[in-house]
Design goal:
This protein has about 140 residues and is an alpha+beta fold. About 30% of the residues lie in helices and about 30% in strands.
């Protein structure tokens, strides 16, 4: 791989109840365990950050494959839901659902572009075979 960019961040304090800061200072925030997991929920958490990053990255990949196909992706959006839970064999795991909205495309074309974006997106490539990622194409407003 030819590296084009490297992001750096440092987590300090008490892990999920700590603090995180990027090397350039653009991200600088407290972390908190979500209330659903017994925490206060008074800060962001790694799953929210992963959801935001995956959604943005996948949306870029979707726009790339759409440009190549000369498809209309105006008003497109990608939402990500990241779940965390305990694994049967011990430890914890993640699952992701990506919801793709391509309101100006027929369902079959939207599904095809989403599948192609899933092959291009670096987050999809990093998670493939490691966690369950479900693609959902939202119904277009007809």
């Amino acid at each position: 791989m030819k590296t084009l960019y490297t992001a750096e961040a440092l987590a300090t304090g008490d892990g999920r109840n700590g603090h995180a800061r990027s090397s350039d200072g653009r991200l600088d925030f407290d972390l908190a365990i979500p209330a659903a997991m017994g925490g206060t929920g008074d800060g962001t958490n790694p799953e929210q950050l992963f959801a935001a990053g995956y959604a943005a990255c996948f949306h870029s990949a979707l726009q790339l494959v759409a440009r190549q196909a000369k498809a209309n992706v105006a008003d497109s959006a990608v939402g990500a839901r990241v779940g965390i839970g305990s694994l049967d064999g011990g430890g914890f795991g993640l699952e992701v659902t990506l919801e793709v909205s391509l309101p100006h495309l027929a369902r079959a074309e939207a599904e095809d572009l989403a599948a192609k974006a899933h092959q291009v997106c670096p987050y999809s490539n990093a998670t493939r075979g490691n966690i369950e990622v479900t693609l959902v194409v939202a119904e277009a407003d007809e």
